[in-house]
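Re: magnesium ion structure - here you go.
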Amino acid sequence: MLILNQVTKQFGKFMAVDHLELNIPEGLIFGLLGPNGAGKTTLLRMVMGLIRPTSGSITLFDRYTPTDSAVREKIGYMPQQQAIYPGLSVLENILFFGRLYNSRDKKMKQRADEIIEMIELSKQRDKQVSNLSGGMIRRAMLATTLIHRPLLVILDEPTAGVDPSLRIKFWHWFQELARAGTSIIITTHHISEAVRCDQVVFLREGKILEKGTPDALMKSYQVSDLEEAFVKAIEEKERDREMAV
Ligand SMILES: Nc1ncnc2c1ncn2[C@@H]1O[C@H](COP(=O)(O)OP(=O)(O)OP(=O)(O)O)[C@@H](O)[C@H]1O
Ligand SMILES: [Mg+2]
């Protein structure tokens, strides 16, 4: 579904993404985990075709590059920062994004209602976004991401600033989407919740520290929480680096 071949992004001399090699199969929830500045958003922006790699190549859906126009309608992107119109209602935003994505689906309104029901936004459907709480805004953003039935949904910290019980709901929706065949790439700083991913990579300084299923990673670091595995992976690499100096 997504193949990264030696993908590198340099900003001046700074290497934000460093020769990444990844093959993400379809229909999975794939977690991209790493500290601030690890290169997660930069990588996602390259996959979205918003910026170009300095070197290396990205292949999507077996045959496309990120800037191919055929790719746009197949991807749904929920950015890290708030990206929704505060002056429009929840429904108006969803329909607006549907049109942006060239959704010619005559049943777009029906699809919008289905999503509103799934994300439990019925009561907020006609409310102006500026009057919603932070958590509700994140929900509405997720809804706008799904209107054009994307094959791949890219979620950059969708649960940032979301309370624990709503975070559980978010993961329930992600799992529902994956069950229906949608591929999901997600970043989060709530590492423990990423245990619900099918596969994860730990990224730091633009490089992959570890990858695998959450279970395999927890087993290999002999811990019962993915966050502990993540911290240990970072500490181990830090030690390796010190010894190499
Ligand atoms: N347009 C840019 N110009 C220069 N440097 C950039 C640019 N975009 C990102 N960077 C740098 O690249 C590095 C990776 O940034 P990125 O936003 O990808 O990190 P991230 O893993 O998403 O972090 P966070 O968890 O804080 O969102 C950072 O050091 C950042 O300052
Ligand atoms: Mg980021």
